[in-house]
Amino acid sequence: MRQMLTQDYERADGRALRITFAEPESAQRGGLVVLHEAGAVTDTARVLVNSLAAEGWLAVAPHIGSAPGPLAGADVLKATDTTLAWLVDHGVRGDLLGVVGFDLGGTAALVVAARRMLGAAVSVGGYGISTPASDGLPALVDVAAELASPWLGMYGDDGDELLESEVERLREVAAKAEVATNVVRYPGARHRFDEDPEVAEDAWQRTLAWFDAHLR
């Protein structure tokens, strides 16, 4: 696999963004936008970009914000749109574009999937199911029925009965969307699955299978 690169991307219309990306070694299967946790593109985000590229995807993480703190909804959509344009510039067809996010980026990935028509979207964990997690990001139950992109959400409930009921509520609302949706709840797991390798591996395989099914 080629070396992971970070560069500044600027379009003729004035949109500009710093991105970190990795290209697959062989045939390119499509393009995936990786939405990071609050604050910055971390080592976790870089590992995800690298791992997706190893599976054949042109994977790119936009740098949203420059300091720890909430991701603003408008910033997320603007950065995602610019990153999608970068992928198209690099030869990715519109029906082979997807988005994946983890932690607060998982919250953002659902919002993007409700506001943009993409080939597929995946959320790994995330906050803000019943109440907004960040300024400008809606509560997820308020937009899940509007999903315009096939969406997979995976959540640990941390043994919390309230969070368990919130995830089940999200499942019910997402099922009303006119696209394919699936919500997977891992009882007792932490929301990012950091401390449970078996759950993390299952979530990774489900992520790959979702993109395989919808981006082809």
| Average pLDDT taken over every residue | 91
Biggest sheet, open or closed, and with what strands and sense? Answer: 8 strands, mixed
CATH architecture: 3-Layer(aba) Sandwich
State the end-to-end CA separation. 22 Å
CATH topology, anyone? Rossmann fold
| CATH C-level category | Alpha Beta
Please give the share of residues in helix.
Answer: 25-40%
Q: Name the CATH superfamily assignment.
A: Alpha/Beta hydrolase fold, catalytic domain
Shape: globular
Please report the number of helical segments: 5
> What's the count of strands?
8
How many individual domains? 1
Strand numbers in spatial order across the main sheet: 1-2-4-3-5-6-7-8
Q: Note the run of SSEs as H and E.
A: EEEHEHEHEEHEH
Low-confidence stretches: none
Radius of gyration: 16 Å
Beta-strand residue fraction: 15-25%
- Class from secondary-structure proportions: alpha/beta
Pfam family, one: DLH
Organism: Saccharomonospora amisosensis
Keywords: Hydrolase
InterPro entries: AB_hydrolase_fold (IPR029058), Dienelactn_hydro (IPR002925), Dienelactone_hydrolase-like (IPR051049)
Walk me through the structure.
This protein is of the alpha/beta class. It has a single domain (5-214), classed as Alpha/Beta hydrolase fold, catalytic domain (Rossmann fold). The protein contains 5 helices and 8 strands. It has helices at 43-54, 73-89, 104-115, 161-174, 197-214; strands at residues 5-10, 16-22, 30-35, 57-62, 97-102, 120-124, 151-156, 181-186. An 8-stranded mixed sheet has the order 1-2-4-3-5-6-7-8, with helices on both faces. Strand 7 (151-156), helix 4 (161-174) and strand 8 (181-186) form a beta-alpha-beta unit. Helix 2 (73-89) packs across helix 3. The longest helix is centred in the C-terminal third of the chain and has 18 residues, at 197-214. The protein is globular, with a radius of gyration of 16 Å.
